[in-house]
C-alpha cells in the first residue's frame, strides 16, 4: 500500500485524541492529534507550525509525510499513553531542538 492510500480519510474513524507536552506554566503548550484508524491503531500528527519554513524544514524537505489537514506524520501508536509519550519525545528531541537552533541563528543575524 502506498502512502497516499495509507493516509486516505476513509481509513480513519473520525475519533481523535489531542496530545500535548504541557509540563509546567513556563513551558509553552504544543499540541498534536492522534487520529484513530479503522484497525484501532492511531496515527500521530503535528500541525501547529510557527511558520511555513518550519513545516517545510521539519517534514517536506526531509521527505516525511505531510498533508494540509492532518499535518506532519510523527508515527503510529496503539494506546493513548503511547501517543502522549511519543509526542512529548518528538517535541523535546525534534521540535524544540529545531526551534532553539533557529532562534540562535536569528538572534546572531540581527547583531551583524
What does the model show?
Mean pLDDT is 88; it is low at 106-112. The longest helix is centred in the C-terminal third of the chain and has 30 residues, at 80-109. Helix content is 38%, strand content 27%. It has one domain (3-106). It is α+β, with helices and mostly antiparallel strands and 112 residues long. A five-stranded antiparallel β-sheet has the order 1-2-3-5-4. The protein is built from three helices and five strands; from the N terminus they run αβββαββα. The chain is globular and about 40 Å long.
Describe the SSE topology.
Layout: H1 3-6, E1 12-20, E2 31-37, E3 42-46, H2 52-60, E4 66-67, E5 71-77, H3 80-109
Antiparallel strand pairs: 1-2, 2-3, 3-5, 4-5
The termini sit apart by: 51 Å
- Give unreliable regions as ranges: 106-112
The number of distinct helices, counting runs of at least 4 residues, comes to 3
Can you count the beta strands?
A: 5
Shape: globular
* Biggest β-sheet: strands ordered side by side in the sheet: 1-2-3-5-4
Order of helices and strands: HEEEHEEH
Mean pLDDT: 88
- Major β-sheet, in short? 5 strands, antiparallel
| Beta-strand proportion | 25-35%
Structural class: alpha+beta
Rg over C-alpha atoms, rounded to the nearest angstrom = 15 Å
The percentage helix is 25-40%
Structurally, the number of domains stands at 1
